[in-house]
Every structure is written in structure tokens, then in C-alpha cells.
Task: structure prediction
Amino acid sequence: MTRRTGCFRPLVALLSVLLAAGLLAYRYVSSRVNLASMASPAGQAEVQAPPGFAANVYAGGLQGPRFMALGPDRAVYVAERGAGQIVRLPDVDGDGIADGVEVYATGLDSPHSLVYHEDAWYVGVPTGVVRLRDTDGDGRADEQAAVVDGVPGDGNHRTRTVLFLPDGRMVLSVGSSCNVCVEEDPRRAAILVYDSAGGENERIYASGLRNAVGLALHPESGELWATNNGRDLMGDELPPENVYIIREGADYGWPACHSGDIVDPDFGSEGACAGVGQPVVEMQAHSAPLGLTFYDGETFPEEYRGDLFIAFHGSWNRSEPTGYRVVRLPFTDGEPADGVVDFATGWLDEASGDVPGRPVDVLVGADGALYVSDDKGGYIYRIQYEG
Result:
């Protein structure tokens, strides 16, 4: 018995070491990850907006709805990533609730973004851009072709956002493959540009953007604006999330520099932030800003006209959860204010930390309402002014 007991002592010691290491790892992770929000079940959020505004569910039962766009018929179209399809959400009777979910195109690989240009839809997928056409007018795409293919589609950030510049060139945002690293492919952590909708002459439009998910054109200047998600594992408060005006040829610093003036502790060095593009606004770290849109409708009060609305997908890597809301960047005389203010909340239960949904995109509808997609709950919400 003594010999047998002695044989087990190394095993017991090893298990004790592994248990202690596991406990330390759990404490380390749990101090930096809001586990409750990640594990909480999906559901309908009780969306709250400023006085005079009312929110309702426009559509539900969707599988991972991401970015939205208005079609030539003025209906709301959505990239339903979880189902691999594009759907149309019409509201013919004008009651503020979608009449149904109509499938426009299927068989797509994780569609994230979409934009209508000339006579076709262009959809951002992990490896590039797919063009969809409805040539027979039956309301469903019967032509599907990859106009951009071969973009690196693996790694941490696989969403691709496609947009057309005022001069007709097409841009595509491609996130980094990692949290922070030196990319082997210069097309990562960048915005690519093509001469036209055909995807000709691919090159770098702007670089040093870790994950510029949201792209939008300013309705007056035509400038390209973008949200950017900062790196993880620098604490709860660093680095800030940002909105940038994207200048062609500019470098925005990642991985060596963040938010225009913060040197990366792992990849930065003295002078790392010299000459990098500066943000328009800094926002709470780990809020995960995604879609953004300028309010160009006519039904919101005058003080909201021209303001920028941003969807915060919310944190997973912060000890106290943050984000999970829609914020507004007010403008005065055409210039943005110093910071964002809350516009719509309710996706985060502050008391319990539960998160039934995660906002992804914001869209100004043909009716002037603001539409918000939620890829966790599977909803599209509609916020309209009724005061």
C-alpha cells in the first residue's frame, strides 16, 4: 500500500498544479471578460429612446442580421449572416412593422454588408464582394457573381464592408487577422479600393485600421467616415474606440500606435505615432462601434439633422460590460461635438449584466425613422419621433 500510495503522489501534485493554474487563469480571464453578458440568452430588448421618440420591433426571427441598406424600391434590405442570405423587409401599409421577410438571395458565405449601386446589389463576404442582380424582375436575385475574390478571409475579423465613393470607385474594409500583430498581407487592417464596381486594380486606400467595420459617406462633403475597433488586453479603458475621416493614402497607426497618440506596449516604439491619422472623436474603450450613419431624414427634430449615429455592439473583454447601445455624435454648424451621447439603450441590463441583444447597424429609412439591427436577438428595431 505504501508503494502504491507513493506512485500516486506525483499525479496528485500534478493535478494540484493544474487546478491552481486553471483557477488563476479563470480569475485572470473573468477579471477581463464579462461572462454574464456573453452567456446570457438572446431575447427582445426593451429599447429606450429620448422623450418624444418611440421604439418598436420592425422585424424579428432573423439569424444574425448585420448591415442594412435601402433598395431602389425604398424598402429595407438586410444581410442575414447566420442564414447566408439577403432579405427584403417591406412595409407597404406604412404601420412601422415589416409586412414579412422576403428572401432576395441565398447561398452566400457569411454576408455582412450590402449596398445598391446602379443596377445591382454588392455584398461584402469574407473573401471579397459578390454582385447580385434580379434580371427577370421577380424580386429574387437570379445572377450571382464574385467581382472581388481572394481577399484574406480567415482570422479574427472576417466581416467585409463594401461602399462606393462619390467618384464611382468601390472600397472594401478588411479587418486584422489578430488582436495585435504585424500582418504578412498588407491588405489586412486596411481599406482597399477598386477602380469601379468590377473590382479592377485593387490597391490600398488607407492602412493601420485594426477593424474598420462601419463605413459611411458624409451627405454634404462626400468624405469617407469609418468606425474603428481598438485592440484588446490593454485594460478596461485603453485604447479608446474611434471614428475617423478616412484620407486616401493615410496610415492610422495600427499595430504600433492607437487612437492617434497611444504607443502600443508590444509593437510600438518612440515616434510610432508620428504622422498617423487622427480621430474625429474618441469613445469608451471596448464599446465595439460598428455601423454608422448620418441622419438625413426629415422626421427627427431639427437638432438631430446631420448628426452621426453609431451602433455599439458591446464589450466581451472588459471587467464591467459597456456598449450595447446606439449613440449620437451631435454636430453644430457642420462641426462634430467633443463626444458622443446616448440615444438608444436597453440592450444591457445594468443590474444583472444580462445582454439580450447586440446592436450592429443603423439606417435612416425612407420614412425618416432610424432602424437598428441586432444580430444576437435577431431583431430589427425602428425608432421614430412622435412628440
Q: What stands out?
A: Residues 1-5, 20-31 have pLDDT under 50 and may be disordered. Residues 31-385 form a domain with the Neuraminidase fold (CATH 2.120.10.30). The helical segments are 2-30, 35-39.
